[in-house]
Design brief:
There is one protein chain. The chain is of the alpha/beta class. Helix content is 28%, strand content 14%. It has a ten-stranded mixed β-sheet with strand order 7-6-5-4-3-2-1-8-9-10. α1 packs parallel to α2. The termini are far apart. The structure holds iron/sulfur cluster (2 copies). The site of one iron/sulfur cluster has 13 residues, from α11.
Length: 338
């Protein structure tokens, strides 16, 4: 079968190229720190890059761990960009060097996103003293090098009420976007009992208030919502609404040993559809039962409040990953602001 004839078209991927990281954050969903044993080799990664491009994937977010800790990161990214795939790298911004910046330009990176958890005290408490300053320096240095930069903030109980303060700091920086997402109780966050609950309605109202005049795009990610009066104004692009979880429909996640899931946030063995060491990406993507939790979704599968929600058909119960790690019920969202 031709790629274009398959009913599900892969458009984007999140690719964890290593689990190695200079931090070991208490809430890290993927338990970053040590590289996994037996991570994909350079040759294997280059082949994965080719397969992603061949299957039609247009956009890849490269993550870690800390992606720059892999010595061959630029070779891997370059093999995607030379095939026309747009690549964004997500980093903790702690070790930005002139060499990394020149490599980012050489491989024609589309953008870099830096994780900033909150104002200095919050950010440094979870990472290490001085890491907030280093992250902000990285943002400025990248912008000076004409590399588009954005910030990603993961909300928990402790930092959500301080969004306004963080915004006052970020608005001084040359960003093009600020993405606000919910920290899910997965990985270290689950192990350490990090309190992740916050008032999603407050966050949506905050975004709705600041977005029109912010010097950069402000939006919430897939795991905050849904269909409150602010929907259509809070997802970064005017008019954009959450149209259901895209895992396995148009997007996938790949981990550093080649496991493929519908989304890299669905960090649980049960969601592994196959491994790229044993099968091709095309084989995994087109398998008859692949990604059945979404490819066979019908609104009858919704539970709880989602079951009777007038938006259930389109919203499909919010973020599958968040649902799985909070309640274990895939088709019902406990953070929904409706
Ligand atoms: S109640 Fe459920 S289906 Fe309705 S908007 Fe919220 S998450 Fe979506
Ligand atoms: S699991 Fe959540 S983050 Fe992943 S694609 Fe679905 S809605 Fe988006």
């Amino acid at each position: 079968m031709e790629v274009r004839d398959f009913p599900f078209q892969l458009r984007s991927a999140v690719w964890e190229i290593t689990l190695a990281c200079c931090f070991r954050c208490a809430y890290c969903g993927s338990r970053g720190g040590q590289a996994r044993e037996n991570e994909l080799t350079t040759v294997e990664c280059l082949d994965v890059a080719r397969q992603l491009a061949d299957i039609g994937c247009r956009r890849v977010s490269v993550i870690g761990g800390e992606a720059f800790m892999r010595p061959d990161w630029a070779e891997i990214v370059g093999s995607l960009t030379k095939r026309g795939v747009k690549v964004c790298i997500i980093t903790n911004g702690f070790r930005m060097t002139p060499h990394i910046i020149s490599e980012l330009k050489r491989v024609k990176i589309e953008s870099v996103a830096v994780s900033v958890d909150g104002v200095r005290e919050i950010h440094d408490a979870y990472r290490q003293k001085g890491s907030y300053e280093r992250a902000l320096d990285t943002l400025k240095t990248l912008a000076e090098a004409k590399i588009p930069v954005s910030v990603i903030t993961s909300l928990r109980a402790d930092n959500a009420p301080l969004l306004e303060q963080l915004y006052r700091e970020l608005e001084k920086l040359p960003l093009f976007a600020w993405q606000i997402q919910a920290c899910s109780p997965m990985g270290n966050a689950g192990d350490n009992g990090v309190s992740v609950r916050f008032d999603a309605r407050e966050v949506l109202r905050f975004v709705d208030r600041v977005a029109p005049t912010a010097p950069f795009m402000v939006g919430v990610a897939d795991n905050i919502g849904y269909y409150t009066p602010e929907e259509g104004r809070v997802r970064g692009v005017q008019g954009a609404c959450f149209e259901g979880c895209a895992a396995g429909l148009t997007t996938i996640g790949i981990d550093s040993i080649g496991n493929v899931r519908g989304c890299e946030s669905m960090y649980d063995e049960r969601f592994i559809e196959g491994n790229l060491r044993g099968r091709t990406l095309w084989d995994i993507w087109t398998a008859p039962d692949a990604f059945a939790y979404n490819r066979r979704f019908t609104s009858e599968m919704l539970t709880g409040a989602c079951r009777t929600c007038p938006h259930g058909e389109i919203c499909a119960g919010g973020c599958r990953s968040y649902n799985h790690f909070t309640t274990g019920r895939l088709y019902e969202n406990c953070l929904c602001a409706r």
